Amino acid sequence: MVLRRSWAMSLVAALMVAAGPLVAQIAPTPASPPPEGLTEGTGAPFPKGHQAALDTLPDWGGIWFMEFRRPPPGTTAPLPKLKGKYKAAYEAWRKEVAANDGVEKRARSNCSPPGMPGFMALGQYPYEFLFTPGRVTINQEAWMQTRKIWTDGRKHLEDPDPGFAGDSVGHWEGETLVADSIGFKDEMPLQTGMTHSDKMRIIERIRLSPDNPDLLLNEITVEDPEALEEPFVRTVSYRRDRYGMLLEFQCSENDRNPVDAEGNTKFD
Question: How many percent of the chain have pLDDT more than 70?
Fold first, then answer.
């Protein structure tokens, strides 16, 4: 079981109060052990001496905007093939939205980010990829989201806290980044109106197009043995703006749907 940081910090605070206010107390610095797959003194926490290796990686500099690609005339974009209670829940959601003039009543704030896999398919707002020894960091302008993909050989956390971006580990196959992500919040949609189980796993293969160095391709495979009849695969493409920069995005300054004291979203 992974020690939850909030619980640990509360315990430290309680111990400090119990010790009395007469002497200034300094909490001990946390000393996390190396994650599974790493030994002491190795991995992303020790970048010195490993910077030169970054020159062997592909050039993903600048920022990247997702491309909008409409399906051919007379066709629709493929959707994940749901099954069981997840299919029934999606059909019920569609009927509810249709009965409400196309308006979805979300159970979470409009300022809550979409999480994975939607994180990697946001139009209008660009992405930035940063390479450091043992780690790839993806910054997304919308909601100022950040993903960490560890490439230093560590394994998945044994029991990760469910999150918006999940727990991601990866490796390089030539110039292709292969990322494996698990551990997502239940309320994060698989796609609009679609839910998933805690078994959802996302595999990404990200690489530059062999025909265009300013086009980045991300083949996203979503697996969920409880919610899906078969893995759902889609490819998202992004175009480069070499000198572009991400802007600040503070959604709470314009939150139209506040949450009440009981945690329920208000619909005015």
Answer: 87
Report the chain's C-alpha Rg in angstroms: 21
Q: Could you give the CA distance from residue 228 to residue 223 in angstroms, rounded to a whole number?
A: 7
pTM greater than the 0.85 cutoff: no
Task: Average the pLDDT over 71-78 and give the result.
Answer: 82
Task: List 202's β-bridge partners, or say none.
Answer: 181, 222
CA 13 to chain CA centroid, nearest Å: 31
Rounded CA separation 63/41 (Å) = 33
Q: What are 191-206's pLDDT values in tens digits?
A: 888 999 999 999 999 9
Q: Within a 10 A sphere around the Cβ of 180, how many other Cβ atoms?
A: 16
The position carrying tokens 């009395």 is 20
Give SS3 for 63. strand
Q: Are 237 and 217 in contact (CB under 8 A)?
A: yes
Say what the pLDDT of residue 27 is.
82
Instruction: Confirm if 175 and 208 have CB atoms less than 8 A apart.
Output: yes
The angle at the Cα of 88, spanning 86 to 91, to the nearest 5 degrees, equals: 110
Around 166, how many Cα atoms within 13 Å sit in the side-chain half-sphere? 27
